[in-house]
Structures are given as structure tokens and as C-alpha cells.
Amino acid sequence: MSWAQILDLAGAISLLLGATLALVGAIGLVRLPDFFARMHAATKPQTLGLLLILLGLALTVRTWASVATLLIVVGAQALTAPVTAHILGRAGYRTGIVEDGLLHHDELGAAYRRMQEQDRQREQS
């Protein structure tokens, strides 16, 4: 078996695993019960699935131009996915979609209530 065949096989396996993870993330997005669980399904498996798909493409195509482009996509995904998840989590918390009974540890609650109280006081004065 030559190196090209080994890289093609590794690329195919990586593409298949990435597509499977993306499918699992999509199913989790539809089937999971609450906001944070859905947010987790939308970010974690989707991101790893995309990274595996891009790795599979890099192993299959094997040109420097395409690998450089794929590295830019990997960097953009690695930078934007955590920020997006953080912003979605805070927005969900602030809009009240999150069920308080499902939170095990709420570090944001006291600060958020304090901020709401300050806003109310400013509106009254």
C-alpha cells in the first residue's frame, strides 16, 4: 500500500467521522430538551465534525494552496465557535429562556439581579 493510498484512506475515515459527528449534533439540536443542551449540541460536535471534515479534505487533496485555505477556515472556526456559544448562553440567560431548576451552579445570577436592580433604580430616579 502506497503513501497516497494510506492518506486517501485516512482522509475518507476522517470525512466519515466528521459527517457522523455533524449528524449527531443536528439530531441533538432537534431532540435535546433545554436551551443549554441544544447549545452544546450546536457547538461541540458540529465544530469537531467540521474540523474532521477539513482534515479529511486536506489529506485527500494534498496541495499547499488548499491546505492553507483549510487552515484559515480551521482558525476562523476555532476563534468564532466559543465566542458564539458564550454570547448565545448569555442571551438565553438574559431573555429568561433558561429554566432555573436545570442550573447546577449559577455564577451569573447574583450579578445579573444586581444589575437589574440598579437599572430599576435609575429608571425611578
TrEMBL record:
Keyword check for Chaperone, yes or no. Answer: no
Which InterPro entries does the UniProt entry name for this protein?
Answer: PhaG_MnhG_YufB
- MF terms in GO: sodium:proton antiporter activity
Q: Where are the transmembrane segments?
A: 6-30, 50-74
One Pfam family per UniProt: PhaG_MnhG_YufB
Does Membrane appear among the keywords? Answer: yes
Q: Which UniProt keywords apply?
A: Membrane, Transmembrane, Transmembrane helix
Which family is this sequence assigned to? Belongs to the CPA3 antiporters (TC 2.A.63) subunit G family.
What's the name of the protein? Answer: Cation:proton antiporter
Organism source for this protein?
Janibacter indicus
